[in-house]
Amino acid sequence: MTLKSLVHLYVKKLNKAGIASAQKEIRLLIREIIGINLENQIIDEDLLLSKNQKILIQEALNRRLNREPINRILNKTTFRDFELSLNRNTFAPRKETELLIDIIINLNLEPNKILELGTGSGAISIALMRIFPKCECISTDINQISLKTANQNARKNNVLKQINFICCNWLDIFVNFDFNVIIANPPYIKSEVIESLDPEVKCYDPIISLDGGKYGLDSYKKIILGFVQKRFINNSVIIFEIGHDQAEEVKNLMKEAKIMKIKVFRDYSNQARFILGVKKKTVFSDK
Fold this sequence. Notes:
Elements: H1 3-16, H2 22-34, H3 38-43, H4 51-65, H5 70-74, E1 76-79, E2 82-85, H6 98-106, E3 113-117, H7 123-131, E4 136-141, H8 144-156, E5 163-167, E6 176-177, E7 181-184, H9 199-202, H10 218-228, E8 232-233, E9 236-241, H11 247-256, E10 259-266, E11 272-279, E12 282-283
Parallel strand pairs: 3-4, 3-7, 4-5, 6-8, 7-9
Antiparallel strand pairs: 1-2, 8-12, 9-11, 10-11
Helix pairs in contact: 1-2, 1-4, 2-4, 6-7, 10-11
C-alpha cells in the first residue's frame, strides 16, 4: 500500500465517523509514528509503505476511528511551547487553559510562591515555573498516578527543583497561606451533561476531572468556602478556570469568602472562562 492510498482510505473512514480535519490528523499521526514530515508526505505520496509501517499507522488510525484523541494515542500533548506526557489517569490540558498563563503574566507580578490545586499533568505549574525561574510552586492532586506523571513532566522540562508535588484533596492539608498566586482548574461540568460530551472527552479523560456535581459547582464550593475556614490567609491572587455559564455563581461564592476585586476573563470564543480575585490578609478569631 502506498502512502497516498492509505491517506485516501482513512480520510473517507474518519469523515464517515464524523471526525473533523481528517487529513490533518492522519498526516500528524504518520509524522509522529513513522517520522515522515508533512513536506515529504506530499512529495513522496507514492512511497510504498513497509508491512511494519502499515501496521503501525493502521493501528493508530483505527484507534482514532474509535474516537480516541490523538494525544491519547501518542501519550503526549503540547502545552504552550513544551511537551507533556499523558496517560489514562491524567487530564489532557486544553488550549484555552494557556490563556490562564497569559492572565498571570499580565498581572505584572513577580511571585515567589504559587499554589496549584488539582495539577493533573502539571501543565499550569510547569508553564509558570518556566516563566518565573525564581519562583517555587506547590502542586497538589488527589491522584497519585497523576502526580507521578506531573513529576516526570516537570523533570523533563527542567523545573522539578521549583515544584513540590503533594497528594491531597484541595485545601485539606493547608492551615496558613503564604502564596502570591493560587490557581485551580477544577471539574466544572454538570453531572447530567457528562453523557452528552464527545466520546473523545467522556471516554478518555478521567471522570473525576470532568464531573463537577449536580450544578458543576461542587469543587468551587469546597475550595472557595474552604478559604473562609483558614486561620491565616495572606494577600493572594486567586484564579479559577470556570464553565462558560458559571461566572455569576462562582463570583457569589468568592464574595462570600471575602475575595475582592473580582474580574472575569474570556476565552478564544469570547466565553467567560476565568475568574480572578484577591484575598486580603485575614485573621479569624477562635469565637
